[in-house]
Design a protein that fits this description.
The chain is built from 18 helices and 15 strands. By secondary structure, the protein is an alpha+beta fold. It has two domains: 205 residues, 3-Layer(aba) Sandwich (D-Maltodextrin-Binding Protein, domain 2); 205 residues, Periplasmic binding protein-like II (D-Maltodextrin-Binding Protein, domain 2, 3-Layer(aba) Sandwich). The strands form five sheets. Strands 1, 2, 3, 4, 7 and 15 form a six-stranded mixed sheet that branches.
Length: 438
């Protein structure tokens, strides 16, 4: 998934972080909690997502308001890229929403800069009950000695593909494809159908996934932990794909919102020249992708390709929910997190759209109401990913945001023939290491 924060917004975010560290992070804006004279509370609640998530989340918030008279929500949602841009802007003005959906890749950045509330006291006093939550899942929301976010569930990288198209042309997809096997499929699909491949264009996750195959972690604490030869091989995927014709042209993404399920070339475009036969995403986007697919298109699910699938693949904490330091009513916000984690009624509305619930009793209670897609995801995670994966990489540090943008730019330049893959590898190290060093 892409975190396309411009340098200007990144600077604004840094200003907000400094303000938060100085203790000036009280709710000072309409973005934060408001409390009326009669004691009613309105909490701002923000998330990124698709229409399925938006409808389910709003319904869950409505249920909370119904069960807790006097508490209302200002629901704020956006597409993935826009979400992080808005959050960066809000942090600069000490105006973060009360409750924010958080990604594993950003958790350390926000927590270490004082933008999130430590949930440990609420867990210890029972406001947020975690009796049926595995400790390793709780620990996934840690930064330093505190727990700054509560995981919504577990998911995994997943490649969705146009199974109807491939079946009609006698093309078979296997799980845990090596890179060579995947490239053979890309060429075969292009040769037989004219459909091209979207190789995670705009994603900041795939480069790390690919490099894990070589026991290299891209984003270390103050440097890039990846070799020039591995980077050269990574960027060569795009260089070769354009030369051979099977890689989708970057211009296709100029007219769509990158990261939007509904606008991904797998389901959005009808012409083979602008459509992709696959979409590298995460398991929690499976239901939305199937919903967005044109009538008659069956969506298949498999693992992301890698030179070494077992080394690359991982189980990932799904989105987290966190309370911002700008919230004027963190106590009520903590009750909302408890509701999302432990209410069977709430989760019968959400129905594992963000991932399998972390409360085991809740997960068991809603299982009979899960959709066919949800059950397929659980089977995929249990039988395909879990036996063939490795520990997830540590969260990327704050400085990685600039490197995400650099990687996007280098991929684009390689695709347009402005630089070679070898040049991109050198630039990534020459420019990325100073960014990471700060």
């Amino acid at each position: 998934m892409k975190k396309q924060i411009s340098l200007v917004l990144a600077g604004m975010m840094a200003m907000g972080m400094l303000s938060a560290c100085d203790g000036n992070s009280g709710g000072t804006s309409g973005e934060a909690t408001t409390e009326t004279s009669d004691g009613a509370v309105s909490l701002t609640f923000s998330w990124w997502g698709n229409q399925v998530r938006n409808e389910r989340t709003q319904a869950a918030l409505d249920l909370y308001s119904e069960q807790n008279p006097g508490v209302t929500f200002d629901a704020q949602f956006a597409e993935y890229n826009d979400y992080w841009n808005k959050l960066a802007t809000a942090s600069a003005g000490n105006a973060l929403p009360d409750i924010v959906q958080m990604d594993y890749s950003y958790l350390e950045q926000y927590a270490s800069n004082g933008l999130l509330v430590d949930l440990t006291p609420y867990i210890e006093n029972g406001t947020i009950k975690t009796d049926n939550v595995d400790q390793t899942i709780l620990d996934s929301g840690k930064s330093g000695d505190g727990i700054y976010a509560l995981c919504n569930g577990i998911n995994a990288p997943a490649m969705f593909y146009n199974k109807t198209l491939l079946d009609e042309n006698g093309i078979t997809i296997k799980d845990n494809m090596t890179m060579d096997e995947f490239l053979d499929v890309c060429r075969e699909v292009y040769e037989k159908t004219g459909y091209k491949t979207n190789l995670a264009y705009g994603s900041d996750a795939y480069i790390d996934y690919y490099c894990r195959a070589y026991d290299e972690i891209v984003y270390e604490s103050d440097s890039l932990g990846v070799s020039e030869s591995t980077l050269d091989a990574f960027y060569s995927l795009y260089e070769d794909g354009i030369k051979e014709g099977w890689l989708i042209d970057p211009s296709v993404f100029a007219e769509v919102t990158i990261g939007s399920v509904e606008q991904d070339p797998l389901v959005y475009n009808s012409s083979p020249d602008t459509a992709s036969w696959c979409f590298l995403a995460y398991t929690n986007q499976y239901a939305a992708t199937k919903s967005a697919a044109p009538e008659g298109m069956e969506i298949g699910i498999t693992t992301w390709p890698s030179p070494d699938p077992t080394k690359s693949d991982y189980l990932k904490p799904s989105q987290f929910f966190a309370i911002s330091s700008d919230s004027a009513n963190p106590d009520e916000a903590a009750k909302v997190l408890d509701f999302i984690t432990n209410s069977v009624e709430c989760n019968n509305i959400l129905l594992a759209e963000r991932g399998v619930p972390i409360n085991s009793s809740v997960s068991d209670a809603i299982s009979e109401n899960l959709t066919e897609e949800d059950r397929e995801v659980i089977t995929f995670i249990d039988e395909v990913v879990t036996p063939n994966c490795s520990t997830i990489s540590p969260p990327a540090p704050t400085a990685a945001s600039e490197v995400y943008n650099l990687n996007d730019l280098l991929i684009e330049q390689v695709c347009y023939g402005q630089i070679t893959a070898a040049d991109a590898a050198k630039q990534m190290l020459e420019e990325g290491n100073p960014m990471m060093a700060g």
